[in-house]
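User: Predict structure, ligand acetyl coenzyme *A.
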Amino acid sequence: MKYARITGTGGYLPKRVMTNKDFEAIVDTSDEWIRERTGIIRRHIAADDEKTSDMGLAAAREALQMAETDAKDVDLIIVATSTPDKVFPSTACIVQRRLGISGFAAFDVNAACSGFVYALDIANRFVRTGGSKCALVIGAEIYSRIINWNDRGTCVLFGDGAGAVILQASDEAGILSTHSHADGQHEELLHVPAGISSGYDQVRQESAFIQMKGHEVFRAAVGVLGAIARETLTANNVKESDIAWLIPHQANLRIISAAAKKLKLPMDRVVVTVDEHANTSSASIPLALDVAVRDGRIKRGDLLLLEAFGAGFTWGSALVRF
Ligand code: ACO
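Assistant: Predicted complex:
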């Protein structure tokens, strides 16, 4: 078996939808500002009793169904999340139990918004080296729980959701290459300062919420996404024009457009869901993939470039023959 091939995709979005207009009643903002600066129109927000594992499980079930695979065939679960249900056990172990399976490795990966491409990179290596024949890779996040709802600079940007893929060992082409990077120097440009070992600052409650220097993050994202796209194409000896679909992390339409421009790809070859989902962090790429597979845009044999950027900073990509 030479490749890890995506045989199924799935997605889940919470029922509750919040529009930009809804934010006008909460902070000093406008539908116009949010649309113009980010491309976001609406986002889904999890119910109070909904957890990351609930959403990941729903996406996983859809992916298994599309792959026509029984949960008992899964032999690896990786959940990309920075908003796990609990400190431990991992959300992956919770999903495993709820699927009624056990015995094999199940763990979480936290690379913020790059989490899914990191998890795909790891799962690809498991499958290609014979450590797994059927991997379930999930990206699931509830950022509504780490948003400061009084901070207009961040609260309008995020949404909740989950996406999943089934990766199976195959002789047919699948994932062609994966690339993961990080540069920890920029920790404080984008972070949630609270943590188990750092503690929770009762006086400054905002330590439990996302803090971001948007402008600096924007500039860094555009730069590294250009570089990782070049690295990925060069590694595979393919041209920009060979890419059927670019599936970028969905943080901001302006970042996505800049990434497409660097690749000389028209926007009708870019999967965009940021308008409907906002930034769902590590769920954004598998959700976008699932949307475009289910609506028929992505077809078997298409060459896909997945690329992400997130807190850390982290960034990564995957070139996939679907
Ligand atoms: N409504 C109205 N005005 C606002 C809002 C809002 N929601 N938010 C900020 N503003 C104001 C600011 O206060 C500022 O006002 P001032 O000029 O009076 O000071 C003005 O708008 C411009 O603010 P900027 O921050 O310069 O706006 P910018 O054009 O950079 O857009 C944004 C901000 C959308 C956050 C952008 O910088 C961005 O998308 N950054 C990247 C986000 C990202 O990619 N994150 C990565 C992944 S997230 C993860 O890994 C967890």
